[in-house]
Structures are given as C-alpha cells and as structure tokens.
Amino acid sequence: MPKVTEEYRDARRRHVLDAARRCFLRDGFHATSMADVCREAEVSSGVVYLYFSSKNEIIAAIAAQNLSRISQAAADLAQRHGSRGAGAVLAELLGYVRTEHERNGLASVALLTWSESLRNDVLAESLRDAFTEVRRSLTTLLREQERSGRLGPLSTEATASIMISVLVGYVTQLATQPPDATAPVPDAATALWGPDPADTTDSGLHDAAPLGSNADVVVYRAPLWAGHVRDHDSGDHGRPEPAPS
C-alpha cells in the first residue's frame, strides 16, 4: 500500500483550517465546536483530531497563520522595496492586508484573535512577536530615511509606533466598515512617510481601478505584493484528493 505523502497531509490540515476559519468567521471562536468544524470540513472527527488535539489548538494555528502572513509580508516588502521609503512599504502592506481580507477574511479573524488574546497567553505572545517583527521592519526603513533627512521631527520609534497604529486601525476598519472608509489610507501613508521625492519609479501604487460599483473607491492593480501572496500562500485551498489506497 502506498504511503500517504507529506503533501497530502499538509493539504488535509489546510482543509481543516479553512473549514474552521469559515466557522469562526460565521459564529465566532466560542460558539464554534469541534463538531461544527467536522461538519464544515465534511470529514470525520478522527480526521480533525489527527491534526489538532483541541479547538484551542485550531485557534492558535489560524492565529499564527494570520500573524505570520502580515509579519512576513512586511519583512519581504521592506527588503525588496525599502528604497521607496517606509510610507510606500506601509501602503503596500495595507494593500496586501486588504487583498487577504477579501480573499479569506484576514481582518475579521485578526479582530477575533486580538480579542481572544486578552484571555489566552499563547495568542498574546504570538501577537506581541508579530507586531515586534513588523515594527522592526518599519524602524529599519525609517532610520534610513532619518539619515538622509527625509523623516521629519519625530523619532524613528515614535513614527514606527504611529505606523503600527495605522495598520491596526486599518485592519479594524476593514473588518467593521464599508470599503470606502479605508480607501484613502494607503495613499495617505505614502504621502506622510515617503517615497523619496526624487524617486520617480512607477511602483504600481497609484495604478487604480474602481472597486465594485463605487468609482470613488480605490484599489491597487498589479501591486508589489501580488507575487508575495503566491509566495507565502501557495497550494490548493480546495478539497484534497483522496488518500492513496
């Protein structure tokens, strides 16, 4: 009998997580049971418990998935496009967050996670670590701008804290407000904290297209983070193929 491959196990685990994410977005963490996850995934309880010993473990896995996507995106964008300034990188990060939210409810899951972290020490530590990584990426870029005289009167630490606050507020509004509430934020971040005025490179930040039926709502077409979504979230999100027999 052929062995079950690691790729198959990973696909099954992702399938369970995707089902749990849908349950949590619909009913919240506490109203969702393991039985609900099984029904949503259309698998037996044995399959779910093969990968996760409890609902809290599923919550932790989804939270880690969410947080790592944001922190990895920030680090990746800073490394690849930091020459355009911290504001431009923040704008691209906000665009990435918006796309992930439209695709899989990232912002709504983030709010659930932040709330749960008040009573769950494991989630609280993961949250602190993720924000520390994002802050580190932004601070590195801000120090470069400070050395070239492009930062302004605030310290790098104070500016990084403000930028983190913008990110948190942006995520909160994505989850709770209509799209036009957040539409101006990426351009505002670019205007406040970069790019270099001498840099005329076309980054795609202002290649806008209407969102839905509201022509005044701006989204970003073919942005810098488009490849990053594929890099860090490859794999089929549909139902996995049957196990080899």
Write the CATH architecture name of the largest domain.
Answer: Orthogonal Bundle
- Roughly how much helix do the residues carry, as a percent range? 55-70%
Mean pLDDT, nearest integer?
79
Largest beta-sheet characterization: 2 strands, antiparallel
Please give the CATH class of the largest domain: Mainly Alpha
User: Order of helices and strands, N to C?
Assistant: HHHHHHHHHEEH
CATH topology descriptor of the largest domain: Tetracycline Repressor, domain 2
Number of structurally distinct domains:
2
Radius of gyration: 20 Å
Explain this structure to me?
By secondary structure, the chain is mainly alpha-helical. It contains ten helices and two strands, in the order H-H-H-H-H-H-H-H-H-E-E-H. The protein has helices at residues 6-27, 34-41, 45-51, 55-81, 86-104, 106-116, 121-147, 156-176, 185-193, 226-232, and strands at 208-211, 214-220. Strand 1 (208-211) and strand 2 form a beta hairpin. Helix 1 crosses helix 2 (34-41), helix 5 packs antiparallel against helix 9 (185-193) and helix 7 (121-147) crosses helix 8. Mean pLDDT is 79; it is low at 197-245.
